Amino acid sequence: MIAAPLQFLTVVLATFVLEDAAAIAAGVLAADGRLSLAFAVSACAIGIWIGDLVLFALGRFGGAALLRTRLGRRLATTDAARASAALKQHAGLAIVGSRFVPGTRLPTYVGAGLAGLSAPVFAAWTALGCLVWTPILVVTIAIFGRAVADPLQVYLGGAWIALPVCLWIAWLLRGRVRSLRVTLARLMRWEFWPQWLFYAPVVPWVVWLIARHGARAIAAANPGLEDGGFTGESKSAILEKLPREWTLPHVVVAAGESLPAGIALPVILKPDVGQRGAGVLLARTREEAAAYLSAATSTVIAQEYHAGPYEAGVFYVRRPHESQGRIFSITEKRFPSLVGDGEHTVAELIASHPRFRLQQPLFRRRLAAVLVTVPRAGALVRLGDLGNHAQGAIFLDGSDLITPALTARIDALAREIDGFYIGRFDIRYRDPRAFMAGEDLAIVELNGVTSEATHIYDPSLSLWNAYRTLFEQWQLVFEIGAANLRRGEKGTSLGRLLTLSGRHLMT
To answer: What span, in angstroms and rounded, lies between the C-alpha atoms of 479 and 419?
Structure first.
């Protein structure tokens, strides 16, 4: 029997090699009765904490030498820079949160040392992170590990055989632990929450507004759009209402038809009736377009591709009595990309990125042909070209882009549609200065009352800020709709809105 101090030291040292695997093994040993649960948790927590302190010390005392290495140069230009900024604003949240967010612990902890954060402060916050994370992992394995160990003992004839097999299974389950970390990270970052969960607090507010203003006020906010642009509206029909010189050229292709011969490639293909970027494809070849159209079950828009490189979501509001509308918000959309280091494959770069690893299935499907390639050092790897959050785009608050000239241009375009008062223009442009001057605008589409002021998904903004914006946005919808009802507009009944919602949820 190994002495308790030696067992304790063994678990502590094992965390220095692979902390998750060591925690899994300790949980399995606790499930088998070889270690007490308190012993396993404390040994893992202490080992992980010491490892965190080593990373901090590496940044504090070896910073100059570290920055001369390839890893150091990469950290200095990417993750550590973001980590240092986060540490200056919210040290506790950044340190504890990185324990749960995949890929952020190394840059955050080394960055804390480089940034000169107080050692006692760092030690206290990392201790808290370990005390929260380690029991979750070890206790979970201890509870469910028995379900693995007991059957193995029955079939293999004893703990001396079953335990190594169980540890081997624990080693294989490391991927499950990484998956758990990704799941926890997505839960901590509300921009990745399921739509039903995110909107749950908004529903009572909308119900109260319906009770106050009536359900017909929703569609009456935009009487110039079908059902106010609630859902199920035709994108092409809305684009036809706007001046052609400000919209991207497009054609409508019926289900089962081929792409017209005169359409230039690449081309954007998307459902004429669709929501939140679902079903959007950038087709670079006629073969890709043919495959998409052959599988389509409804009308498709084939729209000219605008390379940008910029895209913005401009949310516009005008009350019926106002002489000029205003820009409620602008979302600056950034397309996801990585920088090659000459050593790691595209798949490995995605898996190690703090944000992109949270959307790995999306990127792995999209980049299946190049996942095993190794980009040269400094090479830019584009992960997406579509300005949809569901397609991997990063949404940032672009309020600094709002100018009187841009406001006047957006207001003039909105007034081209008689009966349009609130919604979002999705616009591509080449030159930020020309865009702010109201000159460089290529409208991709226009969305109605259920569109969002999507700047709320900026990772630097709080959840409270998002809900405050959504509450204000919906209040504007109902107030504008109520004003239009008083002017004689009829709106859409609650029954039809519920029917439209049901169709949307079924598709």
So the answer is: 15
Segment (H or E) for 97: helix 91-98
380 residue type, one letter: L
User: What is residue 78's predicted lDDT score, i.e. its pLDDT?
Assistant: 46
Tell me the CA distances in angstroms from 331 to 130, 137, 312, one per residue in order.
Answer: 37, 38, 5
The amino acid present at 378, given as its one-letter code, is G
CB-based contacts of 400, cutoff 8 Å, min separation 6: none
Q: Model confidence at 248, in pLDDT bands (50, 70, 90)?
A: very high
**Residue keyed to tokens 């030690």:** 123
Q: Is residue 170 very low, low, confident or very high in pLDDT (cuts 50, 70, 90)?
A: low
- Checking if the pLDDT of 174 tops 60, the result is no
Written as one letter, the residue type at 485 is: L
Q: Which residue has the tokens 């409208």?
A: 443
CB 264 within 8 A of CB 290: no
Q: Cβ(104)–Cβ(134) under 8 Å?
A: no
Q: Name the residue among 325, 324, 355, 353 with its Cα closest to residue 340.
A: 353
Let me know if 478 is exposed, middle or buried by CB neighbors in 10 A (0-12, 13-18, 19+). Answer: buried
CA distances (Å), 314 to each of 108, 128, 140, 336, 389, in order?
Answer: 34, 42, 46, 20, 15
User: Which residues are bridge partners to 424 per DSSP?
Assistant: 315, 447
Res. 114 pLDDT band, cuts 50 70 90? confident
3-state per-residue secondary structure call for 125-171 = HHHHHHHHHHHHHHHHHHHHHHHHHHHHHHHHCCHHHHHHHHHHHHH
* CA atoms of 323 and 102, how far apart (whole Å): 50
Closest-CA residue to 114 (of 74, 70, 66, 77)? 66
- Residue 295 main-chain phi, psi, to 5 deg: -90, -10
Specify the pLDDT at position 70.
Answer: 55
**Helical packing angle, 119-156 and 159-172, nearest 10°:** 130
- Please check whether residue 330 is in contact with residue 401, taking contact to mean a CB–CB distance below 8 angstroms: yes
**Which residues neighbour 84 within 8 Å (Cβ) at sequence distance 6 or greater?**
111, 112, 114, 115
The number of helices, as runs of H, and strands, as runs of E, in the chain is 22, 11
- Give the C-alpha separation, 169 to 51, whole Å: 25
Residue 282 makes CB contacts below 8 A (sequence gap 6+) with: 266, 267, 268, 305, 385, 386
d(CA 417, CA 410): 12
Instruction: Give dist(CA 291, CA 281) in Å, integer.
Output: 11
pLDDT given at position 126: 87
- The verdict on pTM exceeding 0.85 is no
Nearest Cα neighbor of 219 from 450, 458, 30, 407 is 450
Return the amino acid letter for 119. A
